[in-house]
From TrEMBL:
Keywords: Lyase, Metal-binding, Zinc. The lineage of its organism: Bacteria, Bacillati, Actinomycetota, Actinomycetes, Kitasatosporales. Residues 20-324 form the Amidohydrolase-related domain. This is 6-methylsalicylate decarboxylase. Its EC number is 4.1.1.52. It comes from Streptacidiphilus alkalitolerans. It holds the Pfam family Amidohydro_2. InterPro entries: ACMSD, Amidohydro-rel, Metal_Hydrolase.
Length: 332
């Protein structure tokens, strides 16, 4: 058993003490039905679609010490092959998410879903959702085999840059997962490499340079980026015509959440790439079960390897700058 997945100790004081969770998911009845009808009853090879309700989420947040959670739709997203159905589903889940924000404005935020790869529809939904009060946007690593950074997504990226949007990246099953997942659920191996592949393409395509006002959040302590950043940077120097992308510089401008098993190795590795002002807390609930969320939160609180200022910045200080409406609530 992983050393951080231990018997949960019921502490009187929640371990996180006012955290802002930037990597939390929600499910609606319509989304659940659409996933099941499209053959995603075991999403990305996981055993089942997890249960989720506002009440259960708030109870876990209180137990762990999470003051606010930015909700997003996880993989496989909202597009199951039909552009019109995807646009309608994106609007539905976003409207239900906005209703949750209206009901619990101090506890929930929304990272809106888009019906990609239909770029015009995605642009329309991004504008609508942001104008309606969404706190940001969530994007999958690839859509129909085209990775973020592909030129087909440039019009959307330009809009998000104009809006100074916060964008949470989330991995999904790779286009060739049948050949590469080795029969295991894709979150085990495929998700970290999906994230790394998408961020590398965003950097090498110069999308990150062209769209500096987008605040990208990279999940899972940067996935494989802390280990591969120098390799990617070296190949950028050798292989690209003209002035090379300074990969390390653009990677240091991104934000990174701690969702998943960021300890004992991933978070220390990430801190060799970025400073503490780039760290954010993430739970990945409910795709990470509640008892695991609490155990991992306890590990971050007790032995995260962060200085007290870094710990405070990771838990709520950095997120307060990205999501100013939560700043007052986080300063406790």
């Amino acid at each position: 058993m992983h050393p951080l997945v231990h018997d949960l100790v019921q502490d009187a004081v929640p371990p996180l003490g006012g955290a802002i969770d930037v990597h939390a998911h929600y499910l609606t009845d319509r989304l659940r039905t659409a996933m099941t009808d499209a053959g995603h009853g075991m999403p990305d090879g996981m055993p089942a679609i997890p249960e989720w309700s506002p009440r259960a989420a708030l109870e876990l947040m209180d137990q762990a010490g999470v003051r606010a959670a930015l909700l997003s739709v996880s993989s496989p997203g909202v597009h199951f092959g039909d552009d019109r159905a995807a646009a309608a589903l994106a609007r539905s889940v976003n409207d239900e998410g906005l209703a949750l924000v209206e009901r619990y404005p101090d506890r929930f935020g929304l990272m809106a879903s888009l019906p990609l790869p239909d770029v015009p529809a995605a642009i329309a939904e991004a504008e609508r959702a942001l104008d309606a009060g969404a706190d940001g946007i969530t994007l999958k690593t690839h859509y129909d085999g085209s990775y973020l950074g592909d030129a087909r997504f440039d019009p959307l990226m330009e809009l998000l840059d104009e809006r100074s949007a916060v964008v949470c990246l989330h991995p999904t099953s790779s286009p060739c997962w049948e050949a590469t997942s080795l029969g295991h659920p894709r979150p085990m191996l495929e998700f970290p490499f999906e994230t790394t592949r998408a961020v590398a393409n965003l950097a090498l395509s110069r999308t990150l340079e062209r769209c500096p006002r987008i605040s990208f959040i990279v999940p899972h302590a940067g996935a494989a980026l802390p280990v591969l950043a120098d390799r990617i940077a070296a190949f950028a120097l050798m292989a690209q015509p003209g002035p090379a992308v300074d990969v390390l510089v653009v990677l240091r401008r991104l934000y990174y959440d701690t969702a998943g098993f960021s300890l004992p190795r991933a978070l220390p590795a990430l801190l060799h790439l970025v400073d503490g002002d780039r760290l954010l807390y993430g739970s990945d609930y409910p795709f990470t079960p509640g008892w695991v969320v609490q155990a991992l939160a306890q590990g971050l609180a007790e032995d995260g390897g962060l200085t007290p200022p870094q710990q405070a910045a990771m838990l709520h200080g950095n997120a307060s700058r990205l999501f100013p409406r939560f700043a007052v609530q986080s300063a406790v």
